[in-house]
Amino acid sequence: MGFTVATNNGVRRITLDRPEQYNALSVPVLKALAECIDESASNAEVRCVVISGSGRAFCAGADVAEWAEAEANGTLETYGWTEAAHAMMAKLYALPKPVIAEVNGAAVGAGVDLALCCDFRYASTKSKFKAGYTTMAYCPDAGSSWHLPRLIGLEKAKQFLFFDKAWPAEQALAAGLVTEVHEPEALTAAVDAVAATLAAGPTFAYGQTKALLEQSSRNSLVEQLSLEQAAGLLCGRSKDADEALKASIEKRSPEFTGQ
Hints:
By secondary structure, the chain is an alpha/beta fold. The chain is built from 11 helices and 10 strands. 50% of the residues lie in helices and 16% in strands.
């Protein structure tokens, strides 16, 4: 399958597990990940998702061996990597639950794109981010041309993509590419703490908030207010909204169930 899955106390940890290939994304891995994301979306026990990598890398992007084999047999444009990657990335970005990328090492190409599809990116001080496209006389192909201008601005996105230099974690943090940076030995504990907080939160409201933010750039203020009203009505009918009101009246912390 190319990755492991473990779910504890509402947190689902998906760990890419091809360390010898630096957790590269092959077509079978991409398709299996898409299925896992679908199941995570529908599973009420999953209230936050963490994506990490085994070994020294987070994700090296596309599987170069698979790519070379497709080129050798004349199927480079049709072997299905792009379609599989796009389907998985779209599902991950739209997942109606919080998603954290635990970037434990190098993220290259589609590995960067994978992290960009997450809501938050926590990096190790040993992490590096590299687009990897123009060095191969190629252009972004798994979402970074959409994410980067929104996260770090157009000019910085051009710097990252055109010059194709690896950005160390601190540079990525300064640019706004990552959320926080931690020492390698402290990274997982920091991510686990954040994931636990999110998993104990109002999951349905998080999903509505993610959807509203994604839609906002395409709408006028009046249009967005209308969407907020509709989403607010749905949130107001949730069990978590009832619990929040009761907790406020009783002057205690709410105990959300994610419903």
